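Database export, one record per block. Field names are fixed; values are copied verbatim from the stored entry.
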Amino acid sequence: MSTIGFVGLGIMGSPMAVNLAKAGHTVLGWNRSPGRADALVAAGGREASSIAEAVRDADVVITMVPASPQVEAVAYGPDGILENAGPGTLLIDMSSITPQTSIDLAKAAGAKGIRVLDAPVSGGEAGAMEAVLSIMVGGEQADFDTAKPLLEALGKTIVLCGPHGSGQTVKAANQLIVAVNIQACAEAVVFLEKSGVDLNAALDVLGGGLAGSTVLARKKDNFLRRAYDPGFKLELHHKDMGIVTDAARTVGAPLPVGAAVAQLIASAVARGDGALDHSALLKGVELLSGYGRGE
């Protein structure tokens, strides 16, 4: 069993830290805003008062924070991970950030003898709670082999995708597919309801055919009830679409459909829906169609 410093106890990080504690690891959790460690403590973990305390004696440090600026804030500086974790520590960043941020972090950490994997996840809050996340990893094979038994407490699909930054590149592609899928589902919902079809029955049969997807299965209830409590916030998907469109531009990969959906997500955030679940893209389709169900 490992001693783990877990930095970031938000919607995703809290259940992940809990699952590590339940698996028998010693977990010290830290979160920028207080009051997020109760579930971890109840599962047998401990709350750290600072990043330094969380990582000082850790074999493994896991970070799960919103974006590149937050990763850089917790990693660098005198109070950050790189200055307080010991040589040989394995730092697993499970945030969704730019590939270049991951590459830069691995280089800076390597200079201090700290090993790094970028290991973003897919599956949302439900996947984190159920420990069935898909984990896409970038880094060295030996470090992946060390981390895999620990990651198996968090997910079911755990794959080394290539060198540093590769996990983030695959995560960007994942977010592109998820965004387009949610938008397509939202458009289908409005089309079906305006046509007078029983929506519950329609989504059941669609889910059993080629149109079925994890997105449809996970978000069906959101669509039916217009319930948008965040499993993954639109504002975070907005950030992720910025990552994928920028990375695609860099390598010369056109994203005609992805670019349109990125703008629809940007519109939702601009309307004030950024704190809602990304299934709230349905509200935008309703507005465009004059349907008004999501008011």
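Remark 1: The mean pLDDT is 96.
Remark 2: The longest helix spans residues 166-194.
End of record.
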